């Protein structure tokens, strides 16, 4: 079933795009991430321009995060004070990212930069996940449990001024820390079309020292609003949001999120983490090759 994408200016297999949305929705249900860190590179592999992929994937991540936020809200797993500060930082970061996006696009380097950022982030994230997943799997086979890391915020976070209490997270830290974290994620979201959950979750655990019970819900809360702002910024600045592409992805992600939530209750988390790490590293390797491969048809367009 071919569907024409008006902004990307190409026809795609609609069922394949829905299937891609289902996969990213499953990741959202399994791991509490928006799934955009896989959606954008997979769309690029399929032939969708990187600018359109990044802009459209952000809107898909918004839809995939809604049900997750409601689910975590019902069980009290969202720190709205912490999340609200990160949303403010994310909105500021989105504005900065929009300026960077336009500047890089004017230089003709935006596609290369997006691909390079994905190589760095996916490579580092996949390596860390593979290491932790392998340790957990081998420890489980040996009949021992891996030692849980002490939950405490980073010394740099402790040195920031103007502390306030975040009761849900059990923290007494400066609001500047979540503000700056949200700002960085906002810039990355604007440039790469990701929700930022794969950065937020470990940063909230190991930098801010938040309790594990509120990390995923608070991350999805921040992702929800920052990707909304990102989609709006792309719509008015880059005009790269393809609503047809986003709609196809959303159709799949809604059902995929439910499947992922069901699988999460039946599967071992360390095995899931190891499988995801392998997938992420495979995509990172594929993007490295894409940076160095020459296209089949090399051409230039000279001004008249």
TrEMBL record:
It is found in: Cell membrane; Membrane. The keyword Cell membrane applies. Pfam families: TauE. It is a multi-pass membrane protein. The chain crosses the membrane at residues 12-38, 44-70, 82-101, 113-131, 171-199, 205-228, 240-259, 271-289. Keywords: Cell membrane, Membrane, Transmembrane, Transmembrane helix. The keyword Hydrolase does not apply. InterPro entries: TM_pro_TauE-like, TSUP/Inactive_protease-like. Belongs to the 4-toluene sulfonate uptake permease (TSUP) (TC 2.A.102) family. This is Probable membrane transporter protein.
């Amino acid at each position: 079933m071919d569907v024409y994408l008006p902004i990307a200016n190409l026809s795609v297999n609609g069922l394949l795009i829905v299937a891609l949305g289902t996969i990213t929705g499953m990741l959202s249900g399994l791991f509490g991430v928006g799934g955009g860190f896989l959606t954008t590179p997979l769309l690029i592999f399929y032939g969708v321009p990187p600018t359109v992929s990044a802009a459209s994937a952000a809107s898909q991540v918004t839809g995939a995060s809604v049900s997750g936020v409601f689910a975590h809200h019902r069980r009290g797993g969202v720190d709205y004070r912490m999340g609200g500060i990160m949303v403010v930082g994310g909105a500021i970061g989105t504005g900065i990212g929009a300026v960077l996006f336009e500047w890089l696009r004017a230089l003709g380097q935006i596609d290369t930069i997006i691909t390079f950022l994905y190589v760095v982030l996916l490579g580092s994230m996949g390596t860390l996940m593979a290491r932790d997943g392998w340790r957990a799997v081998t420890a489980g086979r040996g009949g021992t449990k891996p030692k849980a890391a002490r939950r405490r915020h980073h010394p740099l976070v402790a040195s920031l001024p103007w502390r306030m209490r975040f009761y849900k997270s059990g923290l007494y830290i400066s609001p500047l820390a979540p503000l700056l974290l949200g700002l960085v994620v906002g810039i990355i979201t604007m440039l790469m079309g990701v929700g930022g959950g794969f950065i937020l979750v470990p940063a909230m655990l190991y930098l801010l020292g938040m309790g594990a019970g509120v990390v995923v819900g608070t991350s999805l809360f921040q992702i929800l609003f920052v990707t909304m702002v990102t989609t709006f910024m792309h719509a008015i600045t880059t005009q790269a949001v393809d609503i047809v592409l986003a709609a196809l992805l959303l159709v799949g992600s809604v059902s995929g999120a439910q499947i992922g939530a069901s699988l999460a209750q039946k599967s071992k988390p360390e095995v899931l983490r190891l499988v995801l790490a392998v997938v992420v590293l495979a995509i990172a390797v594929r993007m490295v090759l894409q940076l160095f491969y020459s296209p089949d048809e090399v051409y230039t367009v000279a001004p008249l």
